[in-house]
Amino acid sequence: MSYSIKEIADMMKVTTATIRYWDSEGLLPDIKRVNGIRVFEDKDFKWLRVLNCMKNINMPIKKIKEYLELAQKGDSTLQERYKMILKQKHIIEKQINDLNNCLKEFEYKEWYYKTAIEAGTEKVVENVTSIAPTLEIDKIPKNYKKEGNKNE
Length: 152
Hints:
By secondary structure, the chain is mainly alpha-helical. It has helices at about 5-10, 15-25, 45-55, 60-75, 80-120, and strands spanning about 1-5, 30-35, 35-40. The protein has a domain at about 1-45: Multidrug-efflux Transporter Regulator, Chain: A, Domain 2 (Orthogonal Bundle), CATH 1.10.1660.10. A three-stranded antiparallel sheet has the order 1-3-2.
């Protein structure tokens, strides 16, 4: 089956300008053209999925090009590509960890404000966590009582 640039952009949740940019950067070397118009085919999805993942993790264009060039050389570059993927995987894992920490912080803030709104004042929650400066994530108290502002 064939797909237009618009259809591909919609499927990938990117703009057609993004697809054109990738093409101008040489990241779509095997895309067929009919009368100068890009025509995407089912076989292109394998690379488009990888490219979209690389884009979504903010992998630099230079690194994506390097990976593509290695892939085009075939089996002789398997080890190099494997190392690149492992390195990116570690970067992704760190990003996930960082985002999970942010999520925990925002879950605390969600609890904090919901509790304060229900009570009509922050006084019920402001002394729940330590006021000492720290970079540790605040935690929702397990046994917090609405009536008071202490953990029991």
